[in-house]
Amino acid sequence: MNATAAPSAPSAAGPAHGEAGGFAARVRWAVADGWTITRRDVLHWLRRPGQLVAGLLFPVMMLLMFGFLFGGAMTVPGGGDYREFLMPGMFAMTMVFGVGETVTAVSHDMARGVTDRFRSMPMAPSAVVVGRCAADMLRSAITLAILLGCGLLAGWQWNGTGGEAAAAVGLLLLLRFSLVWLGIYVGLAVRGEGAVTAVHTLEFPLGFLSNAFAATATMPLWLGTVADWNPLSSTVTATRELFGNPGWGGETWIAQNALLMAVVWPLAIVAVFFPLCVRRYRDMAG
């Protein structure tokens, strides 16, 4: 890791600056430190292009497998092309699969002593976790753009307006944003490879116990209810509606209010895990 000079911690605001000036200095300090960590993580990708390419190819292979190998045997309640039904689910699943990447990166930094080195530097307490979040969001945006292109090449298309499609992409990235904080917290709280293995193992049941690949109406009532209340299902249903793809709607309250819940669920996750991440990192430094 290339050493990057960290900005000095701002001193307490003097009488001439007042509390507002002191707060502004702390914000600038936190932003500068967060950007330093983001650059460091992005440079690591550029030095390991094979790992980045492998991560980008995985969702593409999933798309080809479900869209072309299994798609012919699947039906969409109410009619419609299964590939159009599938694509919003694949987009959302890709956001879920990113949790494992976040946990892996945080756990490796902990194991190699990188996190301890950051804690010994005069950095803003939020810089390490905010920098990790920014880097992971950049990677997720690139992955989502590639997957959107692959979907268009495979025959998928959106049937709504450009603004609705942009809103759908925004909801997908909002889901990923919330799950980044979950991944950072797990990576900080649980030591060892066990955390990485557990998260990778749980990604699949979390993703499949939803409406990403099959409509919940085709499931047993109790299982369909659990799947409807999976936060992933709200994002999938909302993006299907915004993209104008088949399969959105439903009988339950949460399915009928998917657009609302696709915002509420991620915000609730962020409200819980962002302060937990900062507190956990601060406690480690104490």
UniProtKB/TrEMBL annotation:
TM annotation in the entry: 52-73, 85-107, 141-159, 165-190, 202-223, 258-278
Stored InterPro entries: ABC2_TM, ABC2_TM_bact-type, ABC_2_transport, Nod_factor_ABC_transporter
Subcellular location: Cell membrane; Membrane
Domain ABC transmembrane type-2: 50-284
Topology within the bilayer: Multi-pass membrane protein
PANTHER family membership: NODULATION PROTEIN J (PTHR43229)
Family: Belongs to the ABC-2 integral membrane protein family.
Organism field: Streptomonospora nanhaiensis
The name this protein goes by in its record: Transport permease protein
The organism's place on the tree of life at top rank: Bacteria
Keyword ATP-binding in record: no
Alphabetized UniProt keyword annotations: Antibiotic resistance, Cell membrane, Membrane, Transmembrane, Transmembrane helix, Transport
